[in-house]
Amino acid sequence: MINRRWLVGGLAVCASLFAVSTVVQASHAWGNYHWARTANPFTLKLGDNMTSSWKPLLSQTSSDWNSPQLVGKTSPIITAIVAGSSNKQCRMVAGTTQVCNGSYGRNGWLGLASINISGDHITQGSAKMNDTYFNTATYNNPNEKLHVVCQEVAHTFGLAHQSEDGSSQNSCMDYFSNTGANATSTLSTRPNAHDFDQLNAIYAHLDSTTTLANGVTQPGRFTDVTGDPNTWGQLVSQSANGRSSTYERDHGDGNKTITHVFWTIEAAEACPGCDHRYDHD
Prior knowledge:
alpha/beta; 7 helices
């Protein structure tokens, strides 16, 4: 157990170097992953499976990602909130991102975003917020909640982080923490201009097919990401401070499930170099 926890140490170093590189190069795409579509802008449906206290935050997140003009930009993505097709388990639905919250347990994570991909094409996604922690005094404030839901939803667009060192880039795609003395701060709760620049770079090309069509069976063999961390697959990267991890489950034939995990402050501080899945055995 100890050995496999610390195997992530080397990955953390690589992830740290990658994080520095992405900031310097002004790039924060999550691999080459993108939704296939035949025209821009395209509409991505966000399935609303949220409870009443979260619904305004999802609405704000959707509005913020639909308002690039506020920071002098355009966007290839239009989000549309629709009735959810899942429950707190957040089973994925083809052509959509399902957004959920629930008490997922003291497993160390605040937010979890997963995408199923075929080749480089995202075919479905899910974003989960863990009320086991958001119902505690540390995390139960609207700014921290908005930061996390904004980030987890955007991971399913194909965006990664602008920064993972805890500094604020005034983007929800950084790892600033709106807790403690910063609980009243609205920094890092919304996308900034660079986020839209990155989306335009990711979606600069068009595809001959779409993975957004309703009722179309998506190609490949996929799995839903559950509360069992073994469904996440293999750890492939982790930030140096331990707050961000990415896992990959390969189903063969170019089909994968990619999961990004946003860990709590406590989990990261206890052992930055550990694979936090095993901190709670």
